[in-house]
Amino acid sequence: MSIVVVGSGINGLVAAAELARAGRTVTLLERAPRLGGFIASQERTLPGFVHDVYSSWHPLFVSGGAYALLGADLEARGARYRNTDGALTASTADVGGERRTVVGYRDPGRTAAGFSRARDRETYLAMLDAFGARAGTVFGALGGELGSGRTLGALGWRALRALGRRGVASLARDAMSSGRAFLRREFDGWEADALWAPWLLHAGLGPQHATGGVMVPVFAATLHQFGLPVVDGGAGRFVAAFESLLRDAGVDIRTGVEAEGIELRHGRACAVRTSAGVVDAGTVIASVSPQALYGTLLAESGAVARQRADAARHRPGRGAAQIHLALDRPVPWEDPALREVPLIHLSDGSGSTGVAVAQADAGLLPQVPTIVVGQQTLLDPQRAPEGKATLWLQLQEVPFAPVGDAAGLIDTRGGWAEATLRDRFLDRVLDRLEAFAPGVRATVLAADLITPADLHAANPNAVGGDPYGGDAELDQNLLWRPFPGAARHRTVVPGVWHIGAATHPGAGLAGGSGHLVAQQLLGRRSR
């Protein structure tokens, strides 16, 4: 019987590709008119300005298991990367009247050299060395089936052998720590916190959330080793390469077709009912939200009543927004060090980002939001006409249905459908950018705002405008993602598997759950 993959985000693409290349018969269903989910590039502002509409940076993909299997084939089909060997990321903020900027480089030593305190310089390099010893355990957990007792037992045994009891206890402490606690415990100065605490937003976390004490070294080590690759010519070429690979492998791709239900025979999946008819299936891999899987696709199954109730209580994370700018010239950063940095956070670290997260969690527009500034044209100049630039702004602390404004200046009644709210929010972001790059507003030729409501409309997996698959606090993470009783990717319904950002290992452009399930179905990984 054939395998039907529902949804063509990164995990669906990876699962379909790995299974088809191994000789399985695969049908890929996508409700949208194109493949890719939150991977796309378009000229959204002006002709000649190519913007990565949603995700952009691929360090997690090029460092993962799916890339090891598929990378060469994707490159042969046009998915090539532009990367940096120098500056990687930076954070800048005004703190007590002082402008603070810290820059991270591919070279860890050069990064540490920018820290003001000798102890912190030593601690930073020691942190990376310690993570090297832990990497097998950490990535084994992130890439393993944590709902399996066999997997957990093997991980624990390997961790004891590699780290010893004290090392395992230290790792467990860091895993239970927030990023803020870890960074303030380990470092005396402000630089490490400012540089890496905002990165926790990219995992759907905040500085105050557990597991941040492990995720900070994960981000730091990954970026130092793999950089911040972007797809040459735009993320759309990545999707086009996947589509070419899938077609060459014989995958039956059906876009504009919505999966409406999974049909069962004797309790086992036998077909997928779609808006265009019924597709036979011995196995269904659903890259959908928990609400969609248990509340819609398996609505007729009595075997998942408990999971259906749990899915209804599954919490989305904070909403997010994207802003795309077409600029008449590159950003005129006041600090010249920022002019060569691909990705910058406007944040002082766990302080301002923690406040903005708390305000967004309370339903308020943050007074001082953390702004992720992507300068892709530094790496890939062809994305804009000569002498001009694109700018990719991401905000990860934005309520889906704002109940107020933390600054008390923006009327949020009517929500994101109101043009006034959209315009005032855009002004807040651009004013904040202007403070660090005087004159930048005068260079803006066109702007495009994508709100949390727009994200949900574009992709129903972004429940509540959350592109990270649900709140990543500890009770919905790791062993409990998306919730207890559904932590394994193989569901209680025979033949039905669940993948995507809502499942372990969570969000990120790695294809981790798609790769894990494909390898289990091929008998190469323990179930």
From TrEMBL:
InterPro entries: Amino_oxidase, FAD/NAD-bd_sf. It comes from the Bacteria. Residues 12-443 form the Amine oxidase domain. Gene3D superfamilies: FAD/NAD(P)-binding domain. GO terms for molecular function: oxidoreductase activity. Interacts with COX5B; this interaction may contribute to localize PYROXD2 to the inner face of the inner mitochondrial membrane. Probable oxidoreductase that may play a role as regulator of mitochondrial function. This is Pyridine nucleotide-disulfide oxidoreductase domain-containing protein 2. It comes from Xylanimonas allomyrinae.
